[in-house]
Specification:
895 residues; mainly beta; Immunoglobulin-like; Methylamine Dehydrogenase, Chain H; 3 domains; 5-stranded mixed β-sheet; 7% helix
């Protein structure tokens, strides 16, 4: 029995007990101790499970006395004492376990046991008489002894082990995931936005770009497209520039700026004129829309302006609620929409009182009653159960005599929490003040912080959250180097400071180390741009020299750097942006206007590989298309062992550069996996949400959302309907088509009335450009392999060949059956990185070959036939010869 099952068994028993604990002592309460003392009868219970069991298999033994002792709570020491379990094996061996104090308030004690003999075991549970020694109504009362004996049967044959999970899917699947498919958690995921999606860059408020869970697409296959506004070429000659495009929102009116994915639904805000549709990042916009992630079909839409405060969701919230009676992620989750109002001062002197949270129900789009006011200001991260944690640093003293306090605010203390103001039954909390002392897990003084100007994380144009749950956070003070006019920086000779604070449960608030750092020489603009808590490294980026250096999270000492860029003619263009690095998988990924992706080892700073400056399949060369010589590339998202790159720039012209691509790169070795035409939707990368194996991004070439991922396929197979004769060949043929929802969109259905052919992974990018982007049909498209098998009249299953579809999705194969009778034909497409598998079935019949006529024998000749007939024939021939000779003589005699 595994740990999870044992825990579930205990939880079940505890839950049953809790349903009964309110009853037994309700009528026994008394203001005074009893004289003489009461004797309260005890009842012992014990369950070994499973019973019977196979030898060597572990069982759970659960013991308890009928009720908890009166007034027992988790905050006191009122407990039952001295449980004893005696196990006697079939051979007489005795194993005794004793517990002085039963820590569980419900009086339940749990024990695991693995029998090693076959036969009958005796299990005996003893509880001795116990006097209630605590103050209160029952002081001095006696709880009588009790015992329970049970026989455990151990057999040679093991009992079946319950399945932990059904296998991972091998066919196309959708949400919801049936609850017994436990292991599917490893392929499924959500994209909840900050702070749940980590790896946010230090600049431009760009949301996190690292999805640590689930799958991401391995091919350019498109599931669907959906316009977010008018896009692409306007048409006509009355535009300022021939072929001018609709405004795409770049750079400051971003569309699709903060998508959220929960439970297989994609949520985003549509733009409204030039206002953008960023979901609260860059301004207001139009309707907020929910669509099915796999089909693009709209589920609901709302007008945030109708709420009166333009409530636009900023992040998704899925909280795992666990207590004695209730377990699981609270239903539907929340789409949380921050808003501001005229607030009040907050406890501990923390900035706040102007920020509040409202929430929508993701399943319906209805605005709930939740109204959480006075959200404190600080740096956020996510907790182990999905709670939203905010770290605030406040000076409760003066500038001359500072007294810095660090506190951890916990959303679960405010709504839907285990010990919070609202329980699971009050998920939609109504109006709650989030800034009372009970909303904080802890607050503590950090006396080692001296002076003013301390903050959580590294401040630049935005705050980089340098918080790692159950690890540490970094507090920073001052500047680490600046260049005049660069992001508001000024030249400084004052050192910066970093203090590392422990967040580990055993040492929360403890100062791990504190270091002073002199400004980087040459007035370099220096930022803490990323960190890798797994490898214990934080990273400084120096803008002017375009280098990086690694420092230890253990002590703040320098580990490596500065790095060196490859000697390339476009390298200097990387100067034009800073703070766009991403750390994942123990590596630092750095890209920019130079059009090259650099991958460094975060442990030592070694350059592992580059992408973009190689040959075919490793090139971003643009020729005269861009002024940089290459297409600028920026990290869009990192997920499932892959780095996805997009092309954008700060202020693109219209029409946009032609030939820009969305690129999928192997995060380990830099191999290019797939590309497709795309221009990003946000300066320095396009936001791409990844969940459940699908990637969604907005393509500024046509202002459509594209969803990439592995889609369903369909097959047909045909064979002759009339029987063939044995010895004749026949033709087996059919087609393999792509049946993703996008293929049924108006344009695609009109152009492909017989369905969109399925093609190979290698052909996918160019083929999808043809299907969805109005690009010329590629002439080198390769189809997919189809395995053709038969079950013959003797019941034998055998593969008879492999056919490859052409660019029309059609395949055919000639085959000569070798026996008579009925055949079943199976055509199977095993699937690929682009498609899930499919198959089709048909049949044909083989008749016997026609019988060959037997050769006829000549009749027996008579004596007359043997002698007379040849003689007559000879005479006739002789007469004929004589006649010819006479005729010739007569001709000679004529004058």
């Amino acid at each position: 029995m595994n740990k999870i099952k044992r825990q579930n068994l205990v939880i079940l028993i505890v839950s049953i007990l809790l349903l009964s604990i309110a009853i037994p002592f309700a009528n026994l309460q008394s203001a005074d101790a009893h004289t003489p003392p009461w004797k309260i009868i005890s009842y012992a219970y014990m369950v070994p499970a499973p019973n019977p069991v196979g030898v060597g298999q572990t069982i759970a033994i659960v013991m308890w006395i009928d009720d908890p002792l009166p007034s027992a709570t988790v905050t006191n020491d009122i407990r039952r004492h001295d449980y004893t379990l005696t196990i006697t094996s079939p051979s007489g061996k005795i194993d005794t376990q004793h517990w002085d104090v039963i820590e569980d308030t419900t009086s339940v004690q749990y024990y695991q046991y693995t029998p090693s003999e076959i036969g009958e075991y005796t299990l005996k549970f003893d509880y001795p008489e116990q006097t209630y020694e605590w103050s209160g109504a029952y002081q001095g009362d006696i709880f009588t002894a009790a015992s329970k004996t049970i026989t455990l049967t151990v057999q040679e044959e093991p009992i079946p082990v319950n399945i932990d999970s059904y296998p991972l899917p091998t066919e196309y699947w959708t949400r919801p995931i049936e609850g017994q498919n436990t292991y599917w958690f490893s392929i499924a995921s959500n994209w909840l936005g900050r702070p749940y999606i980590t790896g946010a860059g230090a600049s431009y408020g760009i949301p996190g770009a690292y999805q640590p869970y689930g799958l991401a697409p391995n091919s350019a296959h498109v599931m669907w497209t959906k316009p977010i506004q008018f896009g692409g070429v306007v048409g006509g000659a009355d535009t300022a520039i021939p072929g001018e495009m609709y405004y795409s929102g770049l750079s400051y009116n971003v569309r699709f700026g903060n998508p959220i994915i929960m439970q297989g639904m994609l949520f985003y805000q549509e733009p409204y004129g030039n206002a953008g549709g960023s979901g609260g990042l860059f301004g207001t916009g139009g309707d907020y829309v929910a669509v099915n992630l796999q089909t693009g079909q709209e589920v609901w839409r709302i007008d945030p302006a109708a709420t009166g405060t333009m409530l636009v969701p900023s992040f998704g919230y899925l909280y795992s609620y666990e207590n004695e009676n209730q377990h699981g992620v609270l239903p539907n989750g929340l789409l949380v929409a921050p808003y501001t109002y005229g607030g009040t001062p907050t406890p501990f002197g923390m900035m706040g009182g102007t920020s509040a949270w409202a929430a929508y129900d993701p399943s319906t789009g209805k605005l709930t009653s939740m109204n959480i006011t006075n959200i404190p200001t600080g740096v956020a991260t996510s907790g182990p159960s999905g709670e939203y944690l905010i770290y605030t640093l406040t000076n409760l003293g003066s500038n001359s005599n500072p007294n810095w306090y660090l506190a951890q605010w916990n959303s679960s203390n405010v709504f839907g929490g285990n010990q919070g103001m609202m329980g699971a039954g009050n998920w939609y909390s109504g109006t709650v003040n989030a800034n009372t002392p009970s909303a904080y897990d802890w607050n503590m003084s950090i006396p080692s912080l001296k002076g003013t100007g301390w903050s959580v994380g590294q401040a630049s144009l935005s705050v980089l959250p340098l918080v790692s749950l159950d690890n540490m956070l970094l507090l920073t003070q001052g500047s680490f180097g600046g260049h005049p006019g660069d992001y508001g920086a000024t030249i400084t000779t004052d050192p910066g400071n970093i203090t590392a604070i422990s967040l580990q449960s055993s040492s929360t608030g403890h100062v791990l180390w504190s270091q002073t750092y002199q400004p980087e020489p040459g007035n370099n603009t220096r930022l803490i741009t990323e960190w890798d808590p797994d490898n214990g490294v934080f990273i400084f980026a120096d803008k002017e020299t375009m280098t990086h250096s690694g420092y230890s999270l253990d002590n703040g000492n320098k580990l490596w750097g500065p790095t060196v860029l490859t000697d390339d003619f476009t390298t200097d263009y990387n100067y034009m942006a800073i703070g766009l690095e991403r750390a994942a998988y123990g590596k630092l990924y750095y890209a920019g206007y130079a059009g090259i992706l650099y991958c460094y080892d975060t442990t030592n700073g070694d350059l592992l590989w580059t992408y973009g400056n190689g040959g075919e399949g490793n090139s971003t060369l643009s020729g005269f298309v861009t002024p940089y010589g290459r297409y600028p590339i920026f990290v869009s998202v990192i997920a499932d062992g892959k780095v996805y790159l997009d092309t954008t720039e700060h202020s693109p012209n219209s029409p946009l550069y032609k030939g820009a691509e969305y690129r999928c790169i192997n995060a380990t070795d830099g191999t290019e996996l797939w590309t497709i035409l795309d221009y990003g939707n946000q300066m320095y990368g396009g936001q791409a949400a990844v969940a459940d194996g699908y990637l969604t991004t907005l393509n500024s070439y046509d202002s459509q959302i594209y969803c990439f991922g592995k889609g369903p396929s369909a097959m047909t197979v045909d064979a002759p309907t009339a029987a063939v004769q044995l010895g004749q060949s026949l033709v087996i043929r059919g087609a393999v088509t792509d049946i993703a929802t996008g293929t049924k969109q108006t344009e695609q259905a009109g152009r492909f009335p017989n369905g969109v052919p399925a093609v190979s992974d290698e052909s996918q990018g160019a083929w999808m450009e043809y299907v969805y982007m109005q690009k010329p049909r590629p002439m080198d498209t390769v189809g997919v392999p189809v395995t053709i098998s038969v079950v013959d009249a003797n019941g034998n299953y055998r593969d008879i060949g492999i056919a490859t579809t052409n660019a029309d999705g059609f395949y055919a194969m000639n085959w000569m059956p070798d026996i008579e009778g009925q055949y079943m034909v199976y055509a199977s497409f095993a699937g690929s990185e682009s498609y899930w598998p499919s198959h089709a079935v048909t049949s044909f019949a083989v008749d016997p070959a026609p019988e060959t006529p037997a050769p006829t024998e000549a009749p027996l000749s008579s004596m007359a036939d043997a002698y007379f007939v040849p003689a007559v024939a000879g005479i006739i021939i002789a007469i004929a010869i004589v006649g010819i000779v006479l005729a010739l003589l007569l001709l000679r005699k004529r004058p």
